[in-house]
Fold:
Amino acid sequence: MSPDTDLEASGATLRLPTLIISPTDIARLSRELETLEDLLRQAHLREPNVPARMPRTSSLFEELGILNKLNLLDKTDRQKAASYLENMKNHAPVVHISFVADPSAEFMTKLVSWLRRNIHPRLLVRIGLQPTLAAGCIVRTNNHVFDFSLRRHLLDSRPILIDSLQKNAKQT
Structure:
């Protein structure tokens, strides 16, 4: 069974909010969901016939619920979200992108949105820093490295530069 089939077979036809970018975000949401489950279970044990109140949650957690129309006070919806997050953690494709400096949140939102639209709808991005790049980025997948750095461009252009300098030296 492919990872996508695993996600679909689990009934996890949920959508991933653009604000959820990395595997770390998925792990954080899973922990938050477990905490919510524990709090609601404890509240039910203490006061069995009193409706539970939703504790304070993160904006990412709320966005997941709103986007997928989940009532996270409902046990079935929490199980659906937990199953989805578990499958995302185990099967979602992850791309590692190294930049010279930390990218802005706005840039990352646009980048993740584009990657999910054009590459894979459940793609997660791990961000790294590599100050030696000078400019650009390096993108790593499980089986390939794409070097879009200024350093790589200059190294690839080295023969052209040397040839140009030699031609100019002969003319003078």
